[in-house]
Amino acid sequence: MDITHQDYQVQYDEAAATVRCSGSFRLHGDEYKPVLDLLGLAADAKPATLTLDVRELQFLNSSGINTLSKFILQVRKHNVSQVVVQGSARFPWQEKSLKNLQRLLPALQLDIV
Amino acid sequence: MAQTFGDFVALLEGDGEYLKIGFHPSSIPLQQRWRNNGLSADFLADYLSTFFPGEDLASAERQSQIKDAVGYIANELLENCMKYSHASRQHLVSIEMFLEPGAITLYTSNGIAPARIEPFQKFIQRLLTEDIDALYTEQLERNAEADADDGGSASGMGFLTMLSDYGVKIAWSFSTPSQPGNEVAVTTMVRMPL
To answer: Can you tell me whether residue B49 is helix, strand or coil?
Structure first.
């Protein structure tokens, strides 16, 4: 189950319980709905470990931060999955902003390499 | 007289180097305007990085940090202009970037709908007086729990991430219309120390 756009891509690898986001998210309003739906599908599968891989995500606007936050809160609500967020130090925004997801889910594991 | 919030500094030509982009918010469809936000923000960030040549590893890292920050902040400011600018023809949307030895300052200006002035100013007061980390978490939870997904259009997350993650100062100036019925323009200043 994938979303492929010229500016961004989202892949849900169900077997690996991993969602990979890449490209630039500069969407507005309900343009994020398909992305949120796909993230929700991954959360609702309730795997023991759920990985969000954003190592190739160059840009995320504040509406995108909202979208990822909704996903994290959905996982928190189910209260069964350990969330691992994989980021990259190549994109400075990731070190600045991804840690904020831990405010919503303190047990979230953040791996920035 | 303008009404200002926060430590608003009006820079003028002569206060360092600057770049200004102006466009009419209603001249092209929203989808295209939205794309222009990214193009304009990336242009400002790319242009600025020429002043910070990444000749060694440390300066390359600094260039990358500055470029990333300006790209994010300019994009958020322009998105706000597009979302909130009043659809009259009295005010252009503009973005300016001033480069001084110790700071980069971005300004955006747009007309604002009369009904939005008071709620916006109330939110500004919260941004200026409350604990940003607590407000940030509160807004994230509130936006995430909201039934309607409006992409956070009323969320204020753009300003909150700038304050929380980028260490900037933000201030606002609201123009006072010279005649009744004239539109109020709001100028937003974001100052990033170097």
So the answer is: helix
The tokens for A52 are: 């969000």
pLDDT tens readout for residues A65-102: 999 999 999 999 999 999 999 999 999 999 999 999 99
CA distance B108 to B88: 17
* ipTM score assigned to the predicted complex: 0.93
Q: Which of these, B63, B163, B175, B167, lies nearest to B123 by C-alpha position?
A: B163
Take residue B10 and report the two structure tokens written for it.
């009006």
Optimal mutation site among A31, A61, A74, interface B, most CBs of chain B within 10 A: A61
Angle (CA) B121-B122-B127 rounded to 5° is 90
User: Which positions in chain B touch A61 (Cβ < 8 Å)?
Assistant: 72, 75-76, 79, 158
DSSP B104-123: EEEEEEEEE-HHHHHHHHHH
Domain boundaries in chain B? 3-193
Cα–Cα nearest to A27, from A10, A42, A11, A8 = A8
Scanning the structure block, which residue is given the tokens 């504040």? A62
Interface mutation vs chain A, best among B165, B166, B168, most A CBs within 10 Å? B165
Q: Indicate the pairing of strand B93-99 with strand B103-112.
A: antiparallel
For B123-136, write each residue's pLDDT tens digit. 999 999 999 999 99
Domain A2-112 top-level CATH class: alpha beta
